[in-house]
Design brief:
globular; 3-stranded antiparallel β-sheet; alpha+beta
């Protein structure tokens, strides 16, 4: 036999890497997938690091996608704004999108939305992670709904975790007929305090 045999651990790691690479989606599919979930413009360097794609290749793919969306007259456009790229509604579709969003605002809030809104109202500023800890389920979808309806809004980032923080809006006060948050009913004691939420997240 020539040479030393490859250690079992290394062989397994190499095999796992090979399987992962074989099932890896195309570069353009990965870039597009990130764009679909991004809540802010994403820079070329961020794409390159997260997806393990050369920055020059990422920039080329973004330009190709932007041109393809425009050429195919899709309902959205890919734009380079500031230091990053993000998907936006096509200008010609804006009136219909606005009609859809406004129509949705007249619908009743779900129980999940009401619970989340109460947590934001009494614990603000609060992150999605903290809201999810209180409710026991992911709050991502509900937060998006409340944001679209202009009941909650972003208000900075947590100094320790960097997580986006949320608070209620002036429209929220208007809908409840309140002058300020001090007029909210004294329900805060029924919700876990900040220290309690930290314990839940850590458990």
């Amino acid at each position: 036999m020539s040479g030393d045999p490859t250690p079992a651990g290394e062989a397994g790691a190499t095999g796992a890497t090979a399987v992962e690479e074989a099932s890896r989606p195309s570069d353009i599919a990965l870039v597009e997938a990130v764009l679909m979930v991004a809540e802010r413009p994403v820079g070329v360097a961020e794409f390159a690091t997260a997806l393990d794609i050369p920055a020059r290749r990422v920039e080329q793919l973004l330009v190709e996608l932007a041109e393809a969306y425009r050429r195919e007259e899709r309902g959205f456009r890919l734009r380079h704004v500031g230091k990053g790229w993000r998907l936006y509604t096509a200008d010609e579709c804006a009136p219909w999108v606005e009609r859809f969003v406004l129509a949705g605002q007249s619908a009743r809030l779900s129980q999940a939305a009401l619970e989340t809104l109460a947590i934001v109202a009494y614990q603000q500023p609060v992150s999605r992670g903290r809201i999810s800890a209180v409710r026991g389920v992911s709050a991502d979808g509900v937060i998006r709904t409340l944001t679209v309806r202009n009941l909650v809004e972003e208000c900075g980032h947590d100094h320790e975790s960097g997580a986006i923080l949320y608070r209620t809006t002036d429209y929220f006060l208007e809908r409840l007929g309140l002058r300020d948050l001090d007029e909210l009913p004294p329900l805060a004691p029924l919700l876990p305090g900040v220290a309690d939420i930290d314990d839940i997240v850590a458990s």
